[in-house]
């Protein structure tokens, strides 16, 4: 019934218990086409990005519980090899290249979904968290939710647009910052940050990148950051930002860094009327912002959580016209344990993408 040869077993990266180590199981079952439900599709993966969230999910340091055993991953790109029997009006077809993002499924009909907050749907299914993710050769997803990948975009290039890209794109979209205004990006050299620089520049904003180390500095400068601040070398980050912005402060801070300190500092360097976009998801950190100055300076504090289907399409379109390029290192699935270690230590500049497609 399918033009594809779908094997019965596959390799997946799996975590058996919270806090356990990730390992590869080469004999994990593949859901067969005849077992797909209405609206489901089977995707043969080409590659998948690795996100900080995968590491948090496996370590259990979030106030949410993951499905176990856990197959992580939510930045996967692959080809649809089967669609559940009886599915009508599918927006995608067999053979099409699609992406699987964090929000794998939402009901599309509840108040949150209808307001465009699909990611907050009460029935939401999360890839690599509440349902099996993309660290697998074959993944079951939903035709209404997979993201079509533009033809001119390589799968490896597209992978990290699906989480890192969408997340920072949406935060910038809602940051209430106009072209030519100043955006500060703490954590600018990391997976989310390095894409935020490019989306911000594509939108015509001016960027102050904050991070540390020579490698991250070079990456941020190369990607178009107007200014660079090394937080380990700077004596006074707030003063430096004010000096760079005619004494007024920046218009917005998009905070991808995983520490609470980055959030409270933003209220000090934002200009009156500025916007603090909270994007990173540290497990336990809190925002310790001055209420007085948040009020007095008319600061807006907004949480922005990944993105909906439309945000994903827009983020992908910007990549397809060359506005954003993911800086990534390619690894085989067998490297996954080492990749988690490096993520934990914050050593990775840009992103890691795991290649899953076997040579034909
Ligand atoms: Zn992610
Ligand atoms: Zn819903």
Automatic annotation (TrEMBL):
Its EC number is 1.1.1.1. Its cofactor is Zn(2+). InterPro entries: ADH-like_C, ADH-like_N, ER, GroES-like_sf, NAD(P)-bd_dom_sf. Residues 19-354 form the Enoyl reductase (ER) domain. GO terms for cellular component: cytoplasm. SUPFAM superfamilies: GroES-like, NAD(P)-binding Rossmann-fold domains. Pfam families: ADH_N, ADH_zinc_N. Keywords: Metal-binding, NAD, Oxidoreductase, Zinc. Gene3D superfamilies: Medium-chain alcohol dehydrogenases, catalytic domain, NAD(P)-binding Rossmann-like Domain. GO terms for molecular function: alcohol dehydrogenase (NAD+) activity; metal ion binding. Belongs to the zinc-containing alcohol dehydrogenase family. This is alcohol dehydrogenase. It comes from Amanita muscaria (strain Koide BX008).
């Amino acid at each position: 019934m399918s033009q594809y040869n779908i094997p019965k077993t596959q390799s997946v990266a799996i975590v058996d218990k919270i806090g356990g180590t990730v390992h590869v199981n080469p004999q994990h079952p593949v859901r067969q086409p005849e077992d797909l439900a209405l609206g489901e599709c089977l995707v043969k993966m080409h590659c998948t990005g690795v996100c900080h969230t995968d590491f948090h999910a496996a370590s259990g340091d979030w106030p949410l519980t993951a499905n176990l055993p856990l197959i992580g991953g939510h930045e996967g790109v692959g080809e649809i090899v089967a669609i559940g029997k009886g599915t009508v009006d599918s927006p995608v077809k067999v053979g099409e290249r699609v992406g699987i993002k964090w929000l794998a499924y939402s009901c599309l009909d509840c108040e949150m979904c209808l307001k465009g907050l699909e990611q907050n749907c009460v029935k939401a299914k999360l890839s690599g968290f509440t349902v099996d993710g993309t660290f697998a050769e074959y993944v079951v997803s939903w035709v209404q939710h997979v993201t079509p990948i533009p033809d001119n975009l390589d799968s490896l290039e597209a992978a990290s647009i699906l989480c890192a890209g969408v997340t920072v794109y949406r935060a910038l979209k809602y940051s209430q910052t106009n072209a030519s205004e100043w955006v500060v990006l703490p954590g600018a050299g990391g997976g989310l940050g390095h894409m935020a620089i490019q989306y911000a520049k594509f939108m015509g904003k001016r960027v102050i990148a904050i991070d540390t180390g020579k490698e991250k500095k070079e990456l941020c400068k190369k990607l178009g950051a107007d200014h660079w601040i090394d937080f380990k070398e700077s004596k006074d980050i707030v003063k430096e930002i004010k000096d760079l912005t005619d004494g007024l402060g920046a218009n917005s801070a998009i905070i991808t860094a995983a520490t609470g300190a980055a959030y409270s500092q933003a209220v000090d360097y934002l200009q009156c009327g500025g916007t603090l976009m909270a994007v990173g998801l540290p497990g336990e950190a809190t925002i310790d912002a001055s209420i007085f100055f948040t009020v007095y300076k008319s600061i807006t504090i907004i949480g922005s959580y990944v993105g909906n289907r439309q945000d994903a399409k827009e983020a992908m379109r910007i990549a397809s016209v060359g506005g954003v390029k993911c800086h990534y290192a390619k690894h085989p699935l067998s490297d996954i344990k080492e990749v988690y270690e490096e993520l934990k230590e914050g050593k990775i500049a840009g992103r890691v993408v795991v290649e899953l497609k076997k040579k034909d």
